[in-house]
Specification:
seven-stranded parallel beta sheet; 9 helices; 9 strands
Length: 264
């Protein structure tokens, strides 16, 4: 269900993972639209830097590294929730440990669920707002070496679609953002798991070269702001994200599996 009357001017927006990359650019883009930004990051220093930058171009902003459940009590209700915080993991399934799985799931999926659980009731009670959950184009593009990352992002996409169906008619919209290859510092928080250390290092170098050629995070920020304003269900940033979406819907399963087996 579309909506074209969401005014971001004066809105209170909370963005997780706002210290760098996509999260920082979303925070800045919202500040330019007149939103009061709460920039949340695990690193207090980077959260504060983003907040200061937001305050220079928009209303007063705050940098936070606290438990998000404390936000409403200290800063009041929010109108926009952008769940962007995430980590990466690359490697063959057999080389991963259960602790690896727990780690990536805790950040990429459980973190989003916890934020929606913390702020959803307030949004629903006010009957107005938008939730953006940042997934990935890999949410619908399986890769042989990305079982953990793909699984968590696919879950984020599915969760967002279910939440949107649940909250339709409440005045609260839900968007799943699915960026393609974006030039961000996510590799700094990515685990490359491989039984052979040299192979893991080579994979990390290869991925770094790929991301260095990626789209600017500003592209995702522009798309997300647009999606908030019109309550778009899914936003695809980058030609490869759009191509992957088409392939997932149109190509035979056998062809999709052949693509999944290809190396980056």
């Amino acid at each position: 269900m579309g909506r074209r009357d969401f005014d971001l001017s004066g809105a209170r927006a909370l963005v997780t993972g706002a210290g760098s990359g996509i999260g920082r650019q979303i925070a800045l883009a919202l500040a330019r639209k007149g939103s009061h930004v709460l920039a949340v990051d695990q690193h207090a220093e980077t959260a504060e830097k983003t907040a200061l930058a937001c305050g220079e171009i928009g209303p007063e902003a705050h940098g936070l590294s606290c438990d998000v459940t404390e936000v409403e009590a200290e800063h009041g209700g929010i109108d926009v929730l952008v769940n962007n915080a995430g980590v990466g993991m690359s490697g063959r399934f057999a080389d991963m440990t259960i602790d690896d799985w727990r780690w990536i799931r805790a950040v990429n999926l459980d973190g989003i669920v916890h934020c929606c659980h913390a702020f959803g009731p307030g949004l629903l009670a006010r009957g107005r707002g938008q939730v953006v959950n940042v997934a990935s184009a890999l949410a619908y593009t399986p890769r042989a070496t990305e079982a953990a990352y793909v699984s968590t992002k696919a879950a984020v996409l599915a969760f967002s679609q279910c939440l949107r169906a649940d909250w339709t008619g409440s005045g609260v919209g839900v968007t799943a953002a699915c960026p393609g290859v974006i030039n961000t510092p996510i590799l700094e928080s990515t685990r490359f798991v491989n039984a052979d250390a040299d192979d893991a290092a080579e994979a990390a170098e290869r991925t770094a070269r790929l991301f260095a050629r990626g789209h600017s995070p500003e592209l995702v920020a522009r798309d997300v702001v647009m999606a908030i304003r019109v309550n778009k269900p899914v936003v695809l940033s980058g030609f490869e994200a759009k191509l992957g979406w088409f392939a997932h819907r149109m190509l035979p399963l056998r062809t999709q599996q052949r693509i999944a087996r290809q190396s980056i």
